[in-house]
Amino acid sequence: MSVACHCPFTFHMPTAIEFEAGAAASLDRILTAHSIGQRLLVVTDPGVLQAGLIEPIVETLRRANYEIRIFSAVAQNPRDTDCLLGAAQYLAHDAKAILAIGGGSAMDTAKTIALLATHGGVPSDYAYGLRPYGPTNPIICVPTTAGTGSEVTRSAVITEAASHRKMTLKHAVLRPYLAVLDPLLTLSVPPSVTAATGVDALVHAIEGATCRKSTPIAQAFGERAMQLIMPHLQRAVSDGRDLEARTAMLEGSLLAGLCFGSTDVAAVHCLAEALGGLYDTPHGVANAVFLPVVMRFNASVNRPLHARLAHLLGFACATQTEDEAISALVDGIARWTRELGIPTLRELPKVQERDFERLAALAFANTSTDSNIRPITERDYLTLLHEAYSEGL
Ligand SMILES: [Fe+2]
Q1: Ligand 1 centroid to 250 CA: how many Å?
Q2: I need a surface site. Which of 15, 23, 104, 378 has the fewest CB within 10 A?
Q3: Do 195 and 178 share a structural domain?
Q4: How far is it, in rounded angstroms, from Cα 365 to Cα 359?
Q5: Which of 153, 186, 219 is the last residue of a domain?
Q6: What is the count of structural domains for the chain?
Q7: Are 220 and 284 in the same domain?
Q8: What is the pLDDT of residues 93-132, one digit of tens each?
């Protein structure tokens, strides 16, 4: 992203990655090769269960003598209360490993279940530093959407059901032991979910590569992720059976996960998580509605970087000035998300301007606020909320 040297930096990635069309059908052999214990708690969500993705995988595993219990009480924005239920199921089954098959919600729930089952307490104990993290039994992730990147990150975003507040649990022990990526599992994802999760992946690449904690490694992953996502997301939305586009999107979301998973996200996610916590807005949609205004806000602190982003994402050409490129970036992102069928902030159900002060406070309290490339205040968040609402970008 930038040619400047970043020193010092660290990078740690212990997750084994298996990426292959059809990998899910041979999950038994993959798990055996990685010496995963025979007793598994499978964590999934009701949508994935209904889509029929779980049954053949579980059948294959049972034939290979794996003892499976399925936990599917996973919400769109995963709740601490469900994680506690899952931990009880994990212990009752005497599970030796946890297998998440689903989107980010299932994976984040699974990570948190593994933590609670081994070390007790409630998710907020860990999010607020009241209880130390410790090693868990193996966490295996099989994503069924291209977006979250949670299969390679050290974090889990959990909503405290009582307060609607989103908490980020973040620690190296939450990095999965194994990630199995099979683009065939994403073929049946509906267009609206494909669009929202794909934009989430793009935001991971942008924020991970440009935030204050960015590193050369994150920038390399992020840049490649952007190059994969931009030409393929519309294709995957228009034709879900386009395996080439689905494969590129899953690879792009994986690389975006490796990008932000070693650095952080920033203000777009802070606003999106506030919105998702309060209204249960799908995470990718919540990201999309804030991306243009946050990029415009951030551009003033590093105009060359944002002009370069405009070129990378295909919204500007070489003959344009820096100002023209940044303007094309903001307009282009807004137009692109509209073309993907994603609504604006004003069009979202339940959103009301009288909640904006509360949303701004929630966003400001997010631990990723400090990572934003431009220092940002609670008042700035409030302004961005009003801009996104009134301008309909
Ligand atoms: Fe995200």
Answers
A1: 14
A2: 378
A3: no
A4: 10
A5: 186
A6: 2
A7: yes
A8: 999 999 999 999 999 999 999 999 999 999 999 999 999 9
Name the amino acid, one letter, at 198. G
- Least confident segment among 1-15, 133-147, 235-249, 286-300: 1-15
Range of the domain at 20: 16-186
Instruction: Look up the pTM and report it.
Output: 0.93
| Integer Cα distance of 331 and 148 in angstroms | 25
CA of 204 to the centre of ligand 1 (A): 6
Q: In percent, how much of the chain has pLDDT > 90? A: 92
Q: Is residue 8 part of a domain?
A: no
Residue 43 Cα to ligand 1 midpoint, Å, equals 20
User: 175-196 burial by CB neighbour count: b if 16+ within 10 A, else e?
Assistant: bbbbbbbbbbbbbebeebbbbb
- Please tell me the distance from the alpha carbon of residue 101 to that of residue 187, in angstroms, as a whole number: 15
21 lies in the same domain as 167: yes
Domain holding 235: CATH number? 1.20.1090.10
Span 246-274, pLDDT tens digits? 999 999 999 999 999 999 999 999 999 99
